[in-house]
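[job 0412] stage=complex_fold ligand=3-methyl-2-oxobutanoic acid status=START
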Amino acid sequence: MQERLIVFDTTLRDGEQSPGASMTTEEKIRIARQLEKMHVDVIEAGFPAASPGDFDAVQAIARQVQESKICGLARANESDVAQAAAAVAPASAPRIHTFIATSPIHMQDKLRMAPDQVLERAVAAVKQARNSTDDVEFSPEDAGRSEEDFLCRVIEAVIKAGASTINIPDTVGYTMPSQFGELIARLISRVPNSDQAVFSVHCHNDLGVAVANSLAAVQSGARQVECTVNGLGERAGNASLEEIVMAIRTRQDVFTCDTGIDSTQILPASRLVSNITGFPVQPNKAIVGANAFAHEAGIHQDGVIKRRETYEIMRAEDVGWSANRIVLGKHSGRAAVKERLAALGIEFETEEDLNRTFGHFKELADKKHEVFDEDLQALVTERATEQLNERLQFVAMKFVSQTGEMPAATVTLRVDGVEESATSTGDGVVDASFQAVDGVFPTDNTLLLYSVNAITAGSDSQGEVSVRLQSGGRIVNGQGADTDIVMASVKAYINALNKLELPPRRFHPQSEGTV
Ligand code: KIV
Ligand code: ZN
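[job 0412] stage=complex_fold status=DONE, emitting structure tokens
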């Protein structure tokens, strides 16, 4: 019998800690539903103590997701553990994940605690968590730089206190694959009660080896991997779910375990996370990048046509790059659109809500021939964005661009319900239109990122624009989609400006600051 490798997805917690990646509750529920559809074993839905909004999001996911376990993160203190317990309580299978740092640098300079105090706190938190659920996970944060004897002592004590999963994080992405694999093997053999817990790993990608470290750990006996869709996460991100899952599946000659993931749901999950967070997927990204299965060089194409395996080690269809995709068009009725949206896990609370989305679908179908699932996802993201956009609303725009002339744009916005327009020239129409927005609503911000991606193939594809702004120490991401990419850009800029108008939402679990 093949052993099971548990997939623990932390897109909604560690992924969301990535500056600018914060999501609304509705968006988190859409992602959680897709993770459930993909058969993720454990969904880390958030850090409930971060803010009331985070608590509500974890609780809503716990109520709505049935098939996956729902986990809430808690620092090793009474209040965090109590809040995590309450947030995950409605889940069919709740888990509490509590953590405290064990490396000398974190204990001395962040926690200002002696090792014995850390050990005591870890044990107390696990015991408290066990009062609400049998499923408790413990992480010694920065394990990759912790002193090994101390790590063994802490792990033994928390297993004794009732932790059934021991997660070893390489918090700062410092270790190398051979080192990390050996560390996991040693911990499993040195901790006397290690057979009473599942060993898990959580690797960050600062040196580009998060997936390699996770795979080395699996070869050493880890049976849970913590990962995120598209490798989203703090700094350089976390280990990417799609890469781990497909490496294990493709190299069954090397691994003695496999995941329960439905790999055909990988691409839809990747597209959804990118669309909602505004973090584009690089074209050459393994598994989910646009070029991952594109054989451009003539010699490769020739080989692939003669026999696919000459250059392909996986089948594109197996990860969701399907040729037979269901397409809607301008003749599709309300029922067909509703059914397709339901298949994507999108439901509507009111008929009015469905009618509004159907109206947007009709507008889009008039502009482009074929409406794909990705277009529908973008439409729904925009619908949610509209509901958020309290201060600034896009009304209309006009722009002129002609060879040899300075481009100019006029933008009309509704600011707190009052319509205002401004005109500006600029270095290209996007720049002119952003300056026109600034003319209506001046703010002090720095543009950190501007990126445009085609949502689907074809020149009539919607452009999906991400705009990342920094203002007063905060970073936000805005998204916009439209078949007109200048319009998509303005929508994305306005979306980011609206987010900057909202108060900072939450505590960061590891740095104690707000984000
Ligand atoms: O990277 C890390 O150490 C974490 C812990 C909270 C598990 O995210
Ligand atoms: Zn992490």
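The longest helix spans residues 351-367.
[job 0412] exit 0
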